[in-house]
Amino acid sequence: MVTELLTTEKTNRAIPYLAVHDAEHALEFYAKAFGAKEVSERIPWEGKIGHAELEIEGARVMLADEFPAYNKSPKTLGGTSVGIHVDVNDVDEFFARAVEAGAKVLQPIKDEPYGRICKLEDPFGHTWFFSTPPELRGSGVRSS
Known about the structure:
There is one protein chain. The protein is α+β, with helices and mostly antiparallel strands. It has one domain: 2,3-Dihydroxybiphenyl 1,2-Dioxygenase, domain 1 (Roll), CATH 3.10.180.10. The chain has four helices and nine strands. The chain has helices at residues 23-34, 74-77, 91-101, 134-137, and strands at 17-20, 37-38, 43-45, 48-56, 59-65, 83-87, 104-112, 115-121, 127-132. Strands 1, 2, 3, 4 and 5 form a five-stranded mixed beta sheet that branches. A hairpin with a 5-residue loop joins strand 8 and strand 9 (127-132). The longest helix has 12 residues, at 23-34. The radius of gyration is 17 Å and the shape is globular. The termini are far apart.
């Protein structure tokens, strides 16, 4: 017998799964720098963090300690070719907090037609883009 669907809208999305050298330190950094909140119980594996999930202004991110047989961090690989993009309510405030916490500036805040954006690198080698789209700022792109 067919039951009623709870929703007809597909909610699939890509969720980044980060490998880091020190997941405990990464979780602390992401909380301080990005305001991340853990949203699941950590799953231990081989004496390390095998899985953790966080949210940054509603965007979900998963992470684990590096396990060379399964995943490799940007530090082990010598960099990353992937950037994680998160829309935030106030990129200026977000940028200041992240830099104060130790994020490396790869691109200072600048205005683009699609919003106000910056590019940062975390201490674990992951590249992040944070932006505030014009519709979140209310009056379009402001001048620098």
